[in-house]
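task queued by scheduler; priority normal; single chain, no ligands, no partner chains; default sampling; output format set to structure tokens
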Amino acid sequence: MDYDYFLERFQKAADQLDKKMLIQKHLEIYVGVTLNSVVLKLYKKAWSNDKADPINAKTRIFFAIWVNDQTLKHNKVFYNIHALKLRQLKGYSIASSEFADSFRSDLKKHEKHWENVSVKLGPLTLMEGWNYFENENLENTIIKLANNFLEIEYIIDHTLEKFKSRKVIH
């Protein structure tokens, strides 16, 4: 796989996302190489314990779109939402499976906007799916998936709110 080529394509797509919307929603963008994949990630610092390095934090939630040698061999662009080590997320009391179930329940009404999506996964992957890889339309595919995520990112905040730690003062 030509990493530089795909990094450039993913960055072009990232550059076309609505920056005002991202700022309004407190979302950040990362384009890079992770686990031998070229990836675009959307995340909030609030969804991580490590505000200085939320991309590599052990405890975090993020949306990712990626390609690698395997996905390209099958002509697919993959996407998912990961929720890693949520039991340790500061300010919350989260059981990962309960969080995943709650998120997926709220996601149901939006599933029609996600091609080939599955939620029948463990609690670390809230959803995962793929679109067909078409080289000439790669940026458009990435933008479409990212914009779809912008429509549902509030579900993560809504679900987190259900698990916010409540301190009882006597």
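post-processing summary
- Residues 3-162 form one domain.
- Helices lie at 3-15, 19-24, 69-73, 96-107, 138-162.
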